[in-house]
Write a structure and sequence with these properties.
It is built from four helices and three strands; from the N terminus they run αβαββαα. It is mainly alpha-helical. It has a three-stranded mixed beta sheet. Bound molecules: zinc ion. Zinc ion binds at residues 84, 88, 96.
């Protein structure tokens, strides 16, 4: 998809809405590989020059996500990716798999989650 100011605004708006529903702080969103390269190296360590390969990347330690708009075939994939990355933020201990995918589906369907609290 081609990024323009209107699409940029829509993505940030969606991110805000989902972050709210998932009980997490709204992350900073990077939308181009150029933006990934512009943030301090330590923030994107491990997934910096390779970020272009993915639909999305979450840099959990820094409350930062990359949504690779140029790679997106359509809006559905875009929305999926936003929710996928935010589910990583809300469930940082969970890796990809059945449970993760279920949470993504629930998130897309409008489910809200109580804020994440670390267990003592
Ligand atoms: Zn993932």
């Amino acid at each position: 998809m081609k990024i323009d100011p209107n699409l940029r605004f829509k993505i940030l708006e969606k991110t805000g809405i989902y972050a709210n529903r998932f009980g997490i702080l709204e992350p900073k969103v990077l939308l181009t590989t150029k933006e990934v390269l512009e943030v301090p190296k330590e923030m994107t360590e491990g997934r910096r020059t390779s970020a272009y390969k993915y639909y999305g990347v979450s840099y959990m330690q820094h409350n930062l996500i990359f949504v690779n708009v140029r790679k997106m075939p359509d809006e559905k994939t875009l929305e999926n990716t936003i929710v996928h990355e935010l589910i990583h933020m809300r469930f940082p201990y969970l890796s990809h798999g059945k449970r993760f995918n279920k949470l993504v589906r629930q998130g897309l369907a409008g489910k809200t989650f109580a804020p994440y609290k670390k267990r003592k």
